[in-house]
Amino acid sequence: MNQLSDFCLASSSPRRVELLKSIGLEFAQLAADIDETPRPSEPSEEYVLRMAIEKAQAVLPKLEIKMPVLAADTSVILDGKILGKPIGREDAFSIWRGLSGRNHQVVSAVALTDGQQLLSQISVTKVRFKVLTQAEMEYYWNTGEPADKAGGYGIQGLGGIFVEHIEGSYSGVVGLPLFETCNLLKEFKICQVG
Ligand SMILES: Cc1cn([C@H]2C[C@H](O)[C@@H](COP(=O)(O)OP(=O)(O)OP(=O)(O)O)O2)c(=O)[nH]c1=O
What we know:
It is a single chain. This protein has helices at residues 14-22, 44-59, 89-99, 134-143, 170-174, 178-187, and strands at 8-9, 28-29, 69-78, 81-83, 103-113, 118-129, 163-167. By secondary structure, the protein is of the alpha/beta class. The protein has a single domain (8-187), classed as Maf protein (Alpha-Beta Complex). Strands 1, 2, 3, 4, 5, 6 and 7 form a 7-stranded mixed beta sheet that branches. A hairpin with a 4-residue loop joins strand 5 and strand 6 (118-129). The structure holds thymidine-5'-triphosphate. The site of thymidine-5'-triphosphate (TTP) has 24 residues, from helix 1, strand 3 and helix 5. Its main location: cytoplasm. InterPro entries: ITPase-like_fam (IPR029001), Maf-like (IPR003697).
């Protein structure tokens, strides 16, 4: 644990680490291990927000050196249904058949807490996919890229060629909406930009 860090990122996601580093922030990192099962009929935005908050709250008591904890969660939402990471090949293909040629939403939430104050924000981005062919799905699955990503794709990688259009936050789709994240960090006087 870095004593000079201003905050801790409660995440195992290399994408979140890269995005935070890209805006020049230094931070410690400790992954959160929580139950990510949605509650019955839980609205998608409530679920994503709850996940981000629970990740931050789970890591806070585990820190040897006390500092604020930042966490995030990202889900792909199609027709109100929460799509997480594919559990295998068949699941990925079924997700992609649903996304093919249509709009879906990517909901990302960020939460920041020091145990006394808890701040959170949500980012919703509309994404339109091209019509996917069976050959594209086969090829994409075999790259290994889809496995650990919500909705089974990475806009920042090969999955980007399936994306016709987005309306919202690119960083939010990748997993950490930078505008909202910086807003929270500014409240804690951590992000001094702007
Ligand atoms: C839609 C999309 C998701 N993703 C990734 C971001 C997240 O890492 C992942 C969604 O899963 P999350 O459960 O939000 O995060 P995680 O398990 O990867 O990491 P942690 O909980 O430890 O912070 O999907 C992309 O990388 N690109 C994309 O285009």
